[in-house]
Specification:
It is a single chain. This protein is an alpha/beta fold. The chain folds into two domains: 192 residues, Alpha-Beta Complex (Quinone Oxidoreductase, Chain A, domain 1), CATH 3.90.180; 135 residues, Rossmann fold. Helices cover 29% and strands 24% of the residues. It has 13 helices and 14 strands. The strands form three sheets. Strands 3, 4, 5, 6, 13 and 14 form a six-stranded mixed β-sheet that branches. It has a six-stranded parallel β-sheet with strand order 9-8-7-10-11-12, with helices on both faces. A two-stranded antiparallel sheet has the order 1-2. Helix 5 crosses helix 6. It is globular and about 60 Å long. The two termini are 13 Å apart. The structure holds zinc ion (2 copies). The site of one zinc ion has 5 residues, from loops. One zinc ion binds next to loops.
Amino acid sequence: MIQATISGEREVGFVELPDPEPQPGWALVKVHASALCTEYKAYLQGLTMDTPGHEGAGEVVAVGDDQGPVDVGDRVVILPQYPCGACDLCLSGDYVYCENNQDFAAVNGSNNGKGTFAHYTLKPGWLLPKIPEGVTYAQATMAIDGVGASFGGFQAIGMDSRDTVLITGLGPVGLGAVVNARFRNARVIGVEPAPWRANRALEMGAEVVLDPDDPEILSTIRSMTGGRGVDCAVDCSGVPSSERLCIDATRRRGRVAFVGESKSDLAIQVSRDMIRKGLTIKGSWLYNRTDYAGVMRVIQESPLIDLLISHEMPMSRIGDAFEVLGKGEAAKIVVNPWE
Ligand SMILES: [Zn+2]
Ligand SMILES: [Zn+2]
């Protein structure tokens, strides 16, 4: 099989490897679609990756003994990580927080089959939920970070149609948040400096997209919300100034979810920011496994999914895909490993 790699600064490779074989409890998936995430940062910085890709969808082509709930021929979403499947977090659906992740190479003998920018990938069978009929493989990949990440954040803070929601950072995850917010009929105020992304959010139904560098941004948001502030906010940027804006622009007794990651060192003042405001602040990584059907419903029914998938490209052009993403001129990019 072929696995795409990041082999240096702005360099990709295509390595020929033996087809992996599934261990007991695991399945081999033929990857038909894989969505790009943060790998482009490694590509731009020259950090090599041998098995990139973690957002895939495909068809089960082989199963090990004790394969769990999957069978050959199933069309499936490939959920991330290699959680143990046995701890309280895994059993409650919060597998993404598992503290006993399996060592992929120890289980499978090597890292061959770890990435989804590849013809085939290996995964424990219980992390391969089925794709409903009528949903394409490319659309199904949105069930990971595209739609899934902000879905989990909005579940954590109970965002619904009564809310005005501030979404900071309108990259692939933030644009997914616009999809989720519009699906829930919430009013959306976006914050994003890149023109392509701002325009895409407006196309999706954001009422306005503000520039994070505008010194008047806080007063503008307050004046749009009767002087009180937004009901809730989700940060998808991981940028400390935007995380701060989420806290400051949210009304008293409002809710904030942090979804975007970086090496943020945001200082939170417990008294001023939380106690005296009665603010709820939650961190959220992906979503509970039991919310898969809800995430898939957004993918099936939202008219905005095709705007969230801005590019479908052959994997042979994955270098071009990283370039477009790095320029901030894409939402989710999906590659086909077989082209
Ligand atoms: Zn991702
Ligand atoms: Zn676990």
